[in-house]
């Protein structure tokens, strides 16, 4: 999380702002000067507190709802709070153990693991849990099989290192016998198992250059099958859990806002683009309100952390909830879950 570029505050103003935001995050109500005089621990009069609050409001850090004399933090105030006033509560060993126990010890595939992680984040925070799903090409190929269909069509069965299985139907230039398909599959499995699809394409191009114009039947068939089988295809890009949790928060109870938010969940496109940005900067990222750049997420905060294997970032995990959230608890939960997901993926892909 990047440092705040907010106004410089003296120690008394920072203490009052921290007390106001802490109170607001707890009960969701505007905070008045009398409440602050008791909760801040400062030995100053309510009039002095009102003056400091007026200065904070002029700086854009707090606002006065028209229905109340109290004040609430603005997104800018929350950003300053998170960046420089918040004290995170690291998860204990017991907390981590509980998180680890709630992930499947032996998932059938990485997709099962992503779905479980999304559900776990939603259950832990009572917000929307989300996990971006890596492309199949991010994982190495474990096995490939070809099954002849009618005419020149072939069913391709791709098994990846994360135990995901993808079936594709491809159209060849001419029919191949079951024997030719079996030979091509044996060749590809023996030469390329354990490599990612991008690496396989590069190796095949190298093989073609070496073979020059005289391709033997096996290599020719393997090249055509591989080219058709490994062509990019649309894939699941993100899994979400707990969308209906947001209906229970008063801040998001406006029906038009909820409708826009749920439409964004349905489309996913904008969310995936936002999370792709997060994946390019390893670590924890936080967007408060309009900081995300997407109108549907105004009034929401997005907390994400990157996960991966073997030093490679594969995606992001995170939560979407109201801006009034317990950041000191949510951020460590998201960060720890990202680490546990990476560990679990390492175990899934450990054997070829």
TrEMBL record:
Query: Which domain of life, per UniProt?
Result: Bacteria
Chain ranges of the Heat-inducible transcription repressor HrcA C-terminal domain: 112-331
Q: Name one GO molecular function term.
A: DNA binding
Q: What GO biological process term is on the record, naming one? A: negative regulation of DNA-templated transcription
Q: Which residues form the signal peptide?
A: none
Q: Which residues form a coiled coil?
A: 201-228
Q: Which InterPro entries match?
A: GAF-like_dom_sf, HrcA, HrcA_C, WH-like_DNA-bd_sf, WH_DNA-bd_sf, WHTH_transcript_rep_HrcA_IDD
Which key words tag this protein in UniProt?
Coiled coil, Repressor, Stress response, Transcription, Transcription regulation
Keyword tRNA-binding present in the record's keywords: the answer is: no
Matching NCBIfam families: hrcA (TIGR00331)
Role description: Negative regulator of class I heat shock genes (grpE-dnaK-dnaJ and groELS operons). Prevents heat-shock induction of these operons.
Output this protein's name.
Heat-inducible transcription repressor HrcA
Q: Which organism is it from?
A: Oleiagrimonas soli
Q: What is the lineage of its organism?
A: Bacteria, Pseudomonadati, Pseudomonadota, Gammaproteobacteria, Lysobacterales
């Amino acid at each position: 999380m990047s440092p705040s570029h907010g106004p410089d505050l003296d120690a008394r103003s920072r203490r009052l702002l921290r007390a106001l935001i802490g109170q607001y995050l707890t009960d969701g109500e505007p905070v008045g000067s009398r409440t602050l005089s008791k909760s801040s621990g400062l030995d100053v009069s309510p009039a002095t507190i009102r003056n400091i609050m007026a200065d904070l409001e002029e700086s854009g850090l707090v606002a006065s709802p028209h229905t109340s004399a109290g004040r609430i933090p603005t997104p800018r105030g929350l950003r300053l709070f998170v960046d420089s006033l918040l004290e995170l509560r690291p998860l204990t060993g017991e907390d981590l153990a509980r998180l680890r126990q709630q992930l499947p010890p032996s998932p059938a595939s990485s997709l099962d693991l992503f779905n479980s992680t999304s559900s776990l984040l939603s259950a832990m925070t009572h917000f929307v849990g989300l996990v971006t799903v890596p492309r199949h090409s991010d994982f190495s190929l474990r096995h490939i099989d070809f099954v002849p269909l009618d005419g020149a069509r072939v069913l391709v069965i791709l098994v990846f290192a994360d135990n995901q299985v993808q079936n594709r139907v491809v159209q060849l230039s001419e029919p191949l016998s079951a024997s030719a398909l079996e030979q091509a599959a044996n060749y590809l499995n023996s030469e390329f198992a354990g490599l990612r699809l991008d690496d396989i394409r590069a190796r095949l191009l190298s093989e073609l250059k070496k073979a020059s114009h005289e391709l033997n039947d096996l290599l020719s068939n393997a090249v055509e099958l591989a080219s058709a089988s490994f062509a990019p295809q649309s894939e699941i890009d993100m899994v979400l859990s707990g969308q209906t949790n947001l209906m229970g928060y008063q801040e998001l109870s406006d029906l038009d806002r909820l409708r826009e938010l749920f439409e964004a969940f349905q489309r996913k496109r904008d969310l995936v683009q936002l999370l792709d940005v997060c994946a390019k900067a390893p670590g924890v990222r936080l967007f408060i309100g309009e900081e995300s750049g997407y109108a549907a997420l105004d009034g929401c905060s997005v907390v994400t952390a990157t996960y991966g294997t073997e030093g490679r970032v594969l995606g992001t995990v995170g939560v979407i909830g109201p801006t009034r959230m317990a950041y000191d608890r949510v951020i460590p939960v998201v960060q720890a879950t990202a680490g546990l997901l990476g560990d679990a993926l390492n175990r899934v892909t450990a054997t070829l």
